[in-house]
Write a structure and sequence with these properties.
two-stranded antiparallel sheet, 100 residues, single chain
């Protein structure tokens, strides 16, 4: 389940710049990156065979209470997935502070 991120054109340009920098940083390391066009969103829940409608409703209700208007990115982390597609927590491979 994804939450779309919205903002001014300057905000979206900054997010695209971060995404491009991440791609530029991981390509030389041999990491796969998604070549689809960047769309700003966050993963907020994973749907598996065990996911219930009640759980999804709880996630949506929690999202409705968030006030994220003033959120700022302070770092970007590259994660390596564990144990198959979205099945296990990833481990942080690299981390960079974001200036500004």
């Amino acid at each position: 389940m994804w939450a779309d991120l919205v903002g001014s054109e300057d905000d979206l340009t900054a997010m695209r710049s971060i995404a491009q920098a991440v791609v530029a940083g991981v390509e030389p390391l041999g990491y796969f990156h998604d070549r689809r066009q960047f769309k700003p969103h966050l993963a907020v829940a994973t749907i598996t065979d065990a996911t219930t409608v009640q759980h999804l409703e709880q996630v949506l209700a929690a999202l409705d209470t968030l006030d994220v208007a003033a959120c700022q990115v302070s770092e970007v982390a590259l994660l390596q997935r564990g144990g198959g597609l979205w099945r296990a927590p990833g481990r942080r491979v690299r981390r960079r502070r974001v200036s500004g």
